[in-house]
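Quick one:
INPUT:
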């Protein structure tokens, strides 16, 4: 890996100027990319998926790990060309897939044990996460970088302003914790905000698919009108009758409910 050309040279040769429309902010510091790879734990024998590799800073760190394979998914043709060049330099452990990860079933691309490790494009990070949470049982772990504000929403606790739908869904399915925070000047170009890496470890017991769908409807209704008491916010789903069955006071608001209380409501829907 040490004989690879510098990332800045690769970016210049391929004309990979970061594009705001693609949410691109490139992480080129090899010490930071190595820290992200290490945050995922021991990757021996693991099949790693990376979404939005860009010029391949994190990809190089993953290839330097003991991962069995690294599969990258990239929508930008310029970055695809860089990844294909890297694959020709590093061998068959690296597989390159051109396309939009939002429309892909990542679990069909590699066998278990599989992990996702990625610096996610800012503009699609949340919808990507929701899609992967639906399949949380099929991933050993996810190590994902978000804008710090999004990371804090994922890991928020009840009765805080950051606590909402993303926190409930994430913590219902996984143990989520912030592993690393990165300042804007770590990236090219620097974003306006800090970023943070969140580690997701799926719980041993996962809900059935129809319960996930119910939880999505429940949290959308509950947090869709945060200022409303639950009796009003959940009226389309049963309102006071549903809350009474769950033993939850109807005058409470969504941000005061624990993940366990949301689970109880979802099971009663």
């Amino acid at each position: 890996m040490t004989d690879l050309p510098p990332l800045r040279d690769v970016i210049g040769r391929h004309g990979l100027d970061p594009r705001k429309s693609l949410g691109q902010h490139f992480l080129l510091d090899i010490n930071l990319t190595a820290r992200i790879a290490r945050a995922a734990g021991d990757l021996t024998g693991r099949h790693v998926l990376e979404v939005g590799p860009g010029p391949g800073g994190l990809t190089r760190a993953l290839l330097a790990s003991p991962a069995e394979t690294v599969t990258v998914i990239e929508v930008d043709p310029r970055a695809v060309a860089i990844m294909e060049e890297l694959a020709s330099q590093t061998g068959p452990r690296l597989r390159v897939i051109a396309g939009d990860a939002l429309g892909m079933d990542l679990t069909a691309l590699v066998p278990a044990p599989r992990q996702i490790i990625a610096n996610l494009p800012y503009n699609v990070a949340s919808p990507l996460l929701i899609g992967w949470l639906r399949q949380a049982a099929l991933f050993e772990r996810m190590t994902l970088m978000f804008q710090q504000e999004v990371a804090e929403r994922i890991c928020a606790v009840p009765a805080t302003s950051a606590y909402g739908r993303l926190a409930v869904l994430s913590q219902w399915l996984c143990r989520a914790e912030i592993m690393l925070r990165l300042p804007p000047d770590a990236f090219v170009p620097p974003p306006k905000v800090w970023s943070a890496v969140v580690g997701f470890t799926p719980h041993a017991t996962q809900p059935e698919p129809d319960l996930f769908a119910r939880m999505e409807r429940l949290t959308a209704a509950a947090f869709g009108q945060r200022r409303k008491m639950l009796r009003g916010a959940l009226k389309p789903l049963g309102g006071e009758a549903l809350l009474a069955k769950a033993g939850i006071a109807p005058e409470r608001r969504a941000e005061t409910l624990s993940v366990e209380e949301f689970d109880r409501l979802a099971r009663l829907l």
